């Protein structure tokens, strides 16, 4: 049954995505067609809930600042969070790898909706450009910046080491940090086809004000994310025993 539901989801998700990208092509003439990520990810959430049987349970929604100028720092386990965070937060900006911008049509939408990319082959020069983009999104557009400091997707019970980019971004922007933790990898494993039914647990910590120095953040933030990630992973795994 999991195979059938996963198969139907992927067929509908990718075919529907292609149709939307084609149908909405004229919207690329708009400066910031921010309704497109909402439409795209809302469609994915609908399919996950009604085809796969995967929903979400969120704790701490009231901790999201009213002012959207903050950094979302989250663990990275699955495709799920790269989609569903658009349904939880208001117009987030994802920091992604530059290669995604080269995908025909899809990459154009990423650029037009203000997503930011980093070139890992030219990290130093690319990072300076990234910081300028972050400033513009935070200050001028009032949009939160979503960062996955582990870099690549990790297994639910094996959180990864934080890369230094998050601390450099915080030092540059002086923006508050909102730590967000989930167990999506229990249901949709990294680089896997099968998606299990259930409820992804998402936990949103109270926001950390921009008064912490970098050394303190290097201790606090990974500790908060990793501790909660392991706890939520156990909760998710216990549901499937």
From TrEMBL:
<dbReference type="Pfam" id="PF01553">
    <property type="entry name" value="Acyltransferase"/>
</dbReference>
<protein>
    <submittedName>
        <fullName>1-acyl-sn-glycerol-3-phosphate acyltransferase</fullName>
        <ecNumber>2.3.1.-</ecNumber>
    </submittedName>
</protein>
<comment type="pathway">
    <text>Lipid metabolism.</text>
</comment>
<feature type="transmembrane region" description="Helical">
    <location>
        <begin position="6"/>
        <end position="29"/>
    </location>
</feature>
<keyword id="KW-0812">Transmembrane</keyword>
<keyword id="KW-1133">Transmembrane helix</keyword>
<dbReference type="InterPro" id="IPR002123">
    <property type="entry name" value="Plipid/glycerol_acylTrfase"/>
</dbReference>
<feature type="domain" description="Phospholipid/glycerol acyltransferase">
    <location>
        <begin position="70"/>
        <end position="185"/>
    </location>
</feature>
<keyword id="KW-0472">Membrane</keyword>
<keyword id="KW-0012">Acyltransferase</keyword>
<dbReference type="GO" id="GO:0006654">
    <property type="term" value="P:phosphatidic acid biosynthetic process"/>
</dbReference>
<dbReference type="GO" id="GO:0003841">
    <property type="term" value="F:1-acylglycerol-3-phosphate O-acyltransferase activity"/>
</dbReference>
<keyword id="KW-0808">Transferase</keyword>
């Amino acid at each position: 049954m999991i195979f059938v539901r996963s198969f139907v989801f992927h067929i509908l998700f990718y075919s529907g995505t292609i149709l939307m990208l084609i149908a909405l092509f004229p919207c690329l003439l708009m400066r910031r067609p921010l309704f497109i990520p909402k439409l795209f990810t809302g469609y994915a959430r609908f399919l996950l809930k009604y085809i796969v049987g995967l929903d979400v349970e969120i704790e701490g929604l009231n901790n999201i600042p009213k002012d959207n100028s903050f950094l979302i720092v989250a663990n990275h386990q699955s495709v799920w969070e790269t989609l569903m965070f658009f349904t939880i937060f208001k117009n987030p900006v994802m920091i992604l790898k530059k290669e995604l911008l080269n995908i025909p049509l899809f990459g154009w939408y990423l650029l037009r909706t203000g997503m930011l990319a980093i070139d890992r082959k030219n990290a130093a020069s690319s990072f300076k450009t990234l910081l300028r983009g972050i400033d513009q999104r935070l200050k001028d557009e009032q949009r939160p910046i979503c960062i996955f400091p582990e870099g690549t997707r990790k297994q639910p019970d094996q959180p990864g080491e934080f890369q230094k980019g998050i601390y450099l971004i915080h030092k540059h922007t002086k923006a508050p940090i909102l730590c967000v933790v989930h167990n999506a990898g229990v249901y949709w494993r990294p680089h896997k086809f099968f998606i299990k039914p259930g409820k992804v647990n998402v936990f949103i910590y109270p926001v950390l004000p921009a008064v912490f120095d970098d050394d303190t953040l290097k201790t606090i933030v990974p500790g908060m994310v990793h501790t909660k990630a392991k706890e939520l992973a156990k909760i998710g795994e216990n549901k499937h025993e």
